[in-house]
Write a structure and sequence with these properties.
This protein is α/β, with parallel strands linked by helices. It has eleven helices and twelve strands. Helix 4 links the parallel strand 2 and strand 3. Helix 3 packs across helix 4 and helix 3 runs parallel beside helix 11.
Length: 282
């Protein structure tokens, strides 16, 4: 009888010891931009390697889909989000419906406005105008069955109007049509703890880029950081467990590991990041 009790205790202990990673991050994705130097040459081999690492979802880049799609369909990676040309959301909205139709046919759920070039940035008035423009694009996305997300960099955290430019953008955009893809590294470079941003914008954050940054970088409001500043998820100055806990609480839907610059083969860095996440309690 004692052995039975002990066996039951050990079984219960084993269950409780299973990290909640399987629950919170059961669909860990990868942003394929990380692999831009190797993916075009060896698409199937590279995508299969991602599958073997353990990634289950992918965020793809518009303009290269035809080249990688046959290979992607030979893996178990599920493409759920696409970074499209920024102009489709701003100056060339007349071409947006066609891009969205293509994304919809491929089964994608999110269309992301990825980057505002320095020449198109500005103060509060410029950001308000951008927000109004994104509202129109977001409505077009919704009519096509996709959700529009805006991906931040560091410039959005520049102080403005008693807050930041990101505050202005989020206040100007309609939650029905525009959500946020939070890039936690760039928020840190901009001087803001990603946990703070998660708590502040809560349900408006649908997607997240998981990456890290070396200590001592920033605050600064541009992307002029050294290559060595980009770190694997578990290697930098961001408290990843705290970020994942907050993200889980606010209901972030999809997580994509990304590393803009890597010290060697990007697959090695992605594997290191994935293994770190797997070992955490999330």
């Amino acid at each position: 009888m004692l052995n039975l009790h002990r066996r039951g205790f050990l079984a219960a202990l084993a269950v409780s010891a299973v990290p909640s990673f399987a629950r919170t991050l059961k669909t860990v994705g990868v942003q394929l931009y990380t692999l831009r130097t190797v993916l075009p040459q060896k698409p199937l081999e590279t995508l299969k390697a991602l599958e073997e690492i353990g990634f289950t979802e992918a965020e793809v880049i518009g303009g290269s889909l035809d080249a990688i799609w046959p290979s992607l369909m030979q893996t178990k990676l599920k493409p759920v989000s696409v970074h499209l040309d920024t102009a489709l959301f701003t100056t060339n909205q007349d071409k947006l419906p066609a891009a969205l139709d293509d994304a919809k046919k491929r089964g994608l759920k999110f269309a992301v406005c990825p980057y505002i070039a320095p020449k198109d940035r500005g103060g509060v008035d410029v950001i308000k105008k951008l927000g109004e423009t994104l509202n129109k694009a977001g409505e077009t996305c919704a009519k096509s069955g996709l959700s529009l997300c805006y991906h931040n960099h560091a410039f959005e955290f520049e102080p403005a109007a008693g807050g930041t430019l990101l505050d202005v953008l989020m206040q100007t955009t309609d939650p029905k049509y525009v959500s946020l893809e939070l890039d936690i590294m760039w928020s840190k470079v901009g001087g803001h703890d990603p946990v703070e941003i998660l708590k502040k914008y809560n349900k408006r954050i649908a997607l997240m880029h998981l990456k890290n940054v070396a200590a001592g970088v920033g605050p600064q409001f541009n992307e002029k950081v050294a290559k060595e500043a980009f770190k694997e998820v578990g290697n930098g100055s961001i408290d990843i467990p705290a970020v994942l806990k907050a993200a889980s609480e606010v209901g972030v839907k999809h997580y994509f590991v990304e590393q803009d610059q890597t010290p060697g083969n990007p697959l090695d860095s992605l594997k290191q990041s994935f293994e770190y996440l797997k070992k955490t309690n999330f």
